[in-house]
Amino acid sequence: MQFALDRPHRDDVRIAAVGLLGGLALWGLGLGMNPGRVFDGAWLLVPLVVMAALELLRRTRPRFAVIVGTVAVIADQFTQGSLATVLMFTDLMYAGALYGTPAAARRLPVVTGLLTVAVTLGFVAWWRQPEAVLIGVATGLVSFGPAATGMLVRGHREAAQAERLRAEQTALLAEMDRAQAVTAERARMARELHDMVANHLSAIAIHSTAALSLDDPDTTRGALKTIRENSVDGLAEMRRLIGILRDAGEDTETVAAPTLESLGALVEQSRTNGLDAHLAVSGTVTGLPAPVELAAYRIVQESLTNALKHAAPGRVTVSVDRSDERIEVRVDSPYGGDGADRDGPRAPGSGAGLVGMRERAALLGGVFEAGPQEGGVWRVRAALPLHTEGEDPT
C-alpha cells in the first residue's frame, strides 16, 4: 500500500525520461557546458542519472529531491556539465516550492534569494571583474527564479481552491435558505388554507348532518340554505388563495384579504351557522399593519370555527381591544369539557387550528393562550404588538 501511495506521477515519469534522454543525446554529440574540468568523459552521466531519478520524486518527496538535487548540480560543475542536468534542477526547485509543505515553500525562495546574493558578492570580491556578476545571475536563474515561480503558482492555486470552497459553501447556504423558505411557505399556505376553509366546511358538515338526521322540511331547507352560503363563501376564499398561488395575473379575479372591519360580517355568519355570537370592539381597528390585521382576523375566525364544532350551548363573545402598542383579541365560549354538553351534531377536529393560531402569534412576537377558565368558559386570547419586525404571518 505504501508503494502505491509513493508511485510517481505519470507526468513526472515523462519529465525524467525526457531529461535523461536529452542529456544522453547532448553527451553523445559531445556538447558539454564546462569542457576541461576535473572529471571529463562519462562522469557527467552520474549527476545526470541522479537528477533524472529525483524527477520521479518531485511531487512525493520534494524536500529530499531539492536537497539531493542541489548536491548533484554542484557535482555537475566538476564534470564537463550537462544542460539537461541544470534544467532538471530548475524543475526540482520549482516543484519544491509548488508541492512542498507550506513552511518549506515559504523558505525556499528566501534561501535561494540569499544564496544568489551571496554567490554574486563572493565572486565579485574574488574575481574583481564585472563578469563575476554573471555567475550570480546564473545562480539566480537556476535557483531563485524557479522557486519564486513555484511559490507564485502555489499561491494562485491556493487562492483558486479557497474560492471554490467559498463558492461551495455559498451554494450550500443558498440551498439551506431555499429549503427553509420552501418550508416556511408551505407552513404559511397550510395555515391560510386551514383558516379559510375550516370554518365553512365545519358549518357544512354540521348542517348537512342536521338535515340528514331530522325529518323536517323547514329544518332541511334552512340547513341547505346555510350549506349553500358557506359553499359560496368557501369557494370565494379558495379562489383568493389560488390567485395568490398563481401570482394574480390580469385575468385572475381575486378576493381582497380580510380586515378587522369585516369582523361584524364574520360574527353574523357564525350566527347564521348556529352560534350565539356577539362582538365587542374597544378602540379603532383601522390603520393596523397588514400582517397584524390578518393574523388577528384569522385567530378570531378559527376560534369561532372551534366554538361551532366543540362549544357547549350558550353565548360566544368576541372582544377586540386596541391600544397604542398592541391589539388584543379574545374569544370566550361555553365549555362543557370536550363538548360533552353540546346538543346536536358536531364536526371532528384535528388540533391543527390551535397550532396555526399559536404560530401566527409567535411569528409577530405576540402572546397566544387557549384553555378552560373558571366558570365553564373556554378562552382563546392573542395579544399582537403593532410595531413588529416579525415575519409575515400569512
Describe this structure in words.
The protein has 394 residues and is of the alpha+beta class. It has 2 domains: 2-170, no CATH class; 259-394, Heat Shock Protein 90 (2-Layer Sandwich), CATH 3.30.565.10. Helices cover 63% and strands 10% of the residues. The protein is built from 11 helices and 5 strands; from the N terminus they run αααααααααβαββαββ. It has helices at residues 2-5, 10-28, 45-55, 62-76, 83-99, 102-127, 132-213, 217-245, 263-273, 290-310, 352-363; strands spanning 276-282, 315-322, 326-334, 367-373, 377-385. Strands 1-2-3-5-4 form a 5-stranded mixed sheet, covered by helices on one side. α10 links the parallel β1 and β2. Mean pLDDT is 82; it is low at 248-255 and 390-394.
Briefly, what is this?
By secondary structure, the protein is of the alpha+beta class.
Topology (SSEs and partners):
Blueprint: H1 2-5, H2 10-28, H3 45-55, H4 62-76, H5 83-99, H6 102-127, H7 132-213, H8 217-245, H9 263-273, E1 276-282, H10 290-310, E2 315-322, E3 326-334, H11 352-363, E4 367-373, E5 377-385
Parallel strand pairs: 1-2
Antiparallel strand pairs: 2-3, 3-5, 4-5
Helix pairs in contact: 2-3, 2-5, 3-4, 3-5, 4-5, 5-6, 5-7, 6-7, 7-8, 7-10, 7-11, 9-10, 10-11
